[in-house]
From TrEMBL:
GO terms for cellular component: nucleus. Residues 81-91 have a biased composition (Acidic residues). Residues 150-162 have a biased composition (Low complexity). This is Inhibitor of growth protein 2. One of its GO terms (biological process) is chromatin organization. It is found in: Nucleus. It comes from the Eukaryota. The lineage of its organism: Eukaryota, Viridiplantae, Chlorophyta, Mamiellophyceae, Mamiellales. Zn(2+) 2 binds at C204, C209, C233, C236.
Amino acid sequence: MKQTTTATVLADNTANVPTTLVSYLQRLKALDETSASVSDKVHSEVETFVLRALETTKTNQTTGKDDDNNINNKKRKLNDVDEQDDDDSDEESRKKKKELLEERIDKSVKLCLEIADEKCALAARAYDLVDEHITKLDKDLRVFEDEARNNTNANPKNKPNAQGGQNDKKKDQVGSPYYVNEADPNEPTYCYCKRVSFGEMVGCENDKCKIEWFHFSCVGLDPTVKLKGKWYCKECKLNMKLKKK
Ligand SMILES: [Zn+2]
Ligand SMILES: [Zn+2]
């Protein structure tokens, strides 16, 4: 049947979507964790940087005061030459440390930006994947619906849930076409009541029957009791009796 093919194609086309999507989302989650830790690192690095800068400012201020104070300045020069050397190397190592820290912060920030870019790209890819498949699914579903509708209109006598087909010829007609919409205005009607098919339906064994399919309830049959022998509708029964006479 054509419907089955369309449905199979639908299922096949969408089968690997969840897997791909899950792999994207897992990568996104991993990136999220990495970027969170890198961002934490940047914060602590910047904190250290600011603290050190503040310390340097304090020392400079103290040094400035010392410079202003001639007595202290002279004292320093007189008392300890080694200390002066130490101060110089201290300043240099501090400068080096500052530069290293700056470099590290720069690297971390760049890494953060790279991760953010990859995350954006992944999100866009995931979106495209879903979008593409939704568009395709919509298209396939429209084809599927059209096929189902055409099939229903072409074979109005193929009724589901029919029990009346004791005759072999009739049994072949008992199919189960797929009904997309129960409220379809094009759906054929049956029975004396001229309503659409629902529940158990019984078929009249007369090939020339004008109605052919009937609701169990409309012809007074119990759907829980299996039909025995051939069943004919009122009209056909009457016609058969008249013919015999
Ligand atoms: Zn009826
Ligand atoms: Zn009949």
